[in-house]
Amino acid sequence: MDDGDGGRSRGSARPGSTTRRSIDGGSVFEERIGYARAVCFGDWLHVSGTTGFDYATMTISDDVVEQAEQCLRTIGGVLAEAGFTFDDVVRVRYLLPERDNFELCWPVLRRCFGAVRPAATMQVCGLADPRMKIEIEVDARR
């Protein structure tokens, strides 16, 4: 269904159900793999794992803190597009290949989440591309 926004959002409604809307973020990975940057379902917004790629230029910094900042810029844009803010975030997940990099990101993460203090998990794991040093996903509710 075209919402008149150039194809960035797709929605569907089933009789008797809450409206679901997918938000595309412009990443080539979304099309190749088959997922949306986010899915808005009723009062909930689920934002997919977001890496430090600048999806407009498909570039990524070598610095984990800069990657975290880019993750949050991308997530902030998706939240805003769906009518949410960082204050609506109730759950955040941090995925990092290197445990020691997490603490370096704390000041950046605190700027977005320090006041709202969502439930959070940090997991050490491999990411899809060796250049990726952090991936962040959030769930928000209005």
Number of discrete domains: 1
Question: Span from first to last CA?
Answer: 24 Å
Say how many strands there are: 7
CATH top-level class: Alpha Beta
Return the CATH architecture: 2-Layer Sandwich
Query: How are strands sequenced across the largest beta sheet?
Result: 1-2-3-4-7-5-6
What would the CATH topology be? 60s Ribosomal Protein L30, Chain: A
Overall pLDDT metric:
89
What is the gyration radius calculated from CA atoms?
15 Å
Number of separate helices: 3
Structural class: alpha+beta
| Sheet with the most strands, sense and barrel status | 7 strands, mixed
Share of residues in helices: 25-40%
Query: What is the percentage of strand-forming residues?
Result: 25-35%
Q: Which spans have pLDDT < 50 for at least 5 consecutive residues?
A: 1-8
> What is the 3D shape?
globular
CATH superfamily: RutC-like
